[in-house]
Write the structure tokens for this entry.
Amino acid sequence: MTTLTTTPLAPLLDRLFDEADAAAAETEAAVADLSDDVRARLMRSKTDYRDLYGRLKNAPLAISRETGTLLYMLARSAHAQTIVEFGTSFGISTLHLAAALKDNGGGHLITSEFEPSKVARARANLSAGGLIELVEIREGDALQTLNAGLPDTIDLLLLDGAKALYPEILSLVESRLRPGAFIVADNADDSPDYLTLMRAPASGYISVPFGEDVELSMRIGHG
Ligand SMILES: C[S@@+](CC[C@H](N)C(=O)[O-])C[C@H]1O[C@@H](n2cnc3c(N)ncnc32)[C@H](O)[C@@H]1O
């Protein structure tokens, strides 16, 4: 028996994933007036991401069910006690990671989100899942909120906020990632600089594309 597969978390995640599926049309409508070029530019911008995510403030934008299960398994097998997450949204990924911490015997998850209404929804979901005590939600731009006050050692990093910032967020956390730490980057194809960095021969990581949209990397030392 695990926290992930039992009540209250399992039915809560079922409901949240069903709601995320049902929100797809509304999510598309929120950006329907943007041309493909403008969307691509906003996705890859290091400065204009707030416009894009402001439009999407009611959208869950969640990881897939499979990626959620993967996160739980990685955090369990790494015996993770400290986790950092970039991009909380409604907290669906956070719930998987916090469940792993609980089943590992406890720990601390720092997650970051700049949309206040999403912070409130994530907090409510984490409370409903019985996991809020394990989670610190830092409200504001992660470039600032993850720039200080991190634990000395970090076992797992999830990158799932503005794609263009993946290299910058990694650099804030990197010196604390222990050898063997996992870095999971969702939708990493939208962050080509990040992929180049992680896949370079002397990067200090082993890195592999996984599934359709995840880059899974492991810290092996200093590049
Ligand atoms: C793809 S969603 C995260 C989904 C979440 N990980 C899940 O699976 O449930 C990305 C979120 O990151 C937030 N975000 C994007 N850039 C950010 C930044 N620079 N600082 C803080 N939050 C950011 C957006 O508001 C959005 O809610």
Notes: DSSP finds ten helices and seven strands in the chain.
